[in-house]
Design goal:
This protein is mainly beta. Pfam families: Gram_pos_anchor.
């Protein structure tokens, strides 16, 4: 029995191990044998700081800070070699250019450093995984290099993708006036840490068009609505509130609102449907409870499958009234029959 229980627990644990289509955590790379650092003392060193990817959850990006130092006794130009894992690219900063013949490597920097001086370079790196991934890490590395090509040993830094989290979606729609309506959207960070941006989409039928805010040009909606990227930091417990303006023609319409990508969220109340009409509308997540009509009143929960009992009553015991009525009717019929029989006997 213990062996079966252990096997079951192991199988359940394996089911919850995430399968990564993109980056995976890799062991820090060792300095290749025969590199310049193995034969010559470095004149320039470099160290990279940890990277947290955020903002657009489809292609998150984040800052990488590299500190280049000149430990020598004379001024020198301070370069650094940057190595990045698959699906991570440098997009701006530090004047980087690809190193020919060395895959996934870039030569950056080059400013003049005084003896004992240093300079911090700030780059932006972006994830380019085919599908969004969450809660994973990978490793990059940097090495200092001087103008003569003497390169220090590589040191590693970690790159963190955004973690999965919980966001709660609520929305209300104002009445349609002159073919326009406003949807007030409220997104609450129900997780335990700050997030650096999220994606919100509104799917629209024919006759409904988003006029504000500006939609993303990613093409992911394929003409059926609008994707809005919210790039600000949303603290845990905080609520992001914003308006979506809609142009509506052709009568009552229904729109679908959702937080994307769905694989990021651990809760269910991340999507809702709104009916747009002359009286407005409101909606909440799929797993939410409708609010009370009186905000000051807290509804009392009722257990599923139970009913509210009637007022207290005395227990009904003994013979019921219907039984007594039946006995009385029988006795009355019997009495009438005896009376008729007696009269007939008297007449005879």
């Amino acid at each position: 029995m213990n062996r079966l229980l252990s096997s079951g627990l192991l199988a359940a644990a394996l089911l919850f191990v995430p399968t990564l289509a993109g980056p995976a955590a890799a062991a820090p790379a060792a300095t290749p044998t025969g590199s310049p650092s193995a034969t010559a003392a470095p004149t320039v060193t470099a160290r990279g700081d940890i990277v947290f990817l955020a903002q657009d959850p489809w292609f998150p990006s984040g800052p990488l800070e590299v500190t280049v130092k000149n430990p020598g006794a004379a001024a020198a130009k301070g370069f650094f070699v940057l190595r990045l894992p698959d699906f991570v690219e440098p997009t701006s900063g530090a004047d980087c250019r690809s190193l020919s013949g060395t895959p996934r490597s870039w030569l950056c920097g080059g400013a003049e450093l005084p003896a004992g001086g240093e300079r911090a370079y700030r780059l932006t790196v972006t994830s380019s995984t085919p599908e969004p991934v969450f809660g994973v890490s990978a490793w990059g590395s940097v090495a200092g290099r001087d103008a003569a090509g003497v390169t220090d040993g590589f040191t590693d830094f970690r790159i963190n993708w955004p973690d999965r989290t919980s966001l709660r979606l609520r929305a209300t729609a104002a009445p349609i006036v002159n073919g326009m309506t406003t949807v007030r959207v409220r997104v609450t960070n129900a997780g335990t840490f700050d997030i650096g941006g999220y994606s919100f989409t509104i799917t629209t039928p024919d006759g409904v068009r988003v006029t504000a805010p500006a939609c993303s040009d990613s093409g992911r909606m394929n003409g059926v609505g609008c994707e809005v990227l919210r790039r600000g930091v949303l603290a845990d417990g905080a609520t992001d509130t914003f308006d979506v303006r809609l142009s509506v023609t052709g009568g009552t319409k229904t729109v679908r609102l959702s937080l994307t990508p769905t694989s990021r969220y651990t809760n269910k109340d991340t999507a809702l449907t709104l009916r747009l009409g002359g009286t407005g509308g409101s909606g909440a997540g799929d797993a939410s409870t409708p609010p009370s009509a009186d905000p000051a009143t807290t509804p009392t929960p009722t257990a599923v499958g139970t009913s509210t009992p009637e007022a207290a009553q005395l227990p009904r015991t003994g013979t019921s009234g219907s039984v007594y009525g039946l006995i009385g009717a029988v006795l009355l019929a019997l009495g009438v029959g005896l009376l008729v029989l007696r009269r007939r006997m008297s007449q005879g």
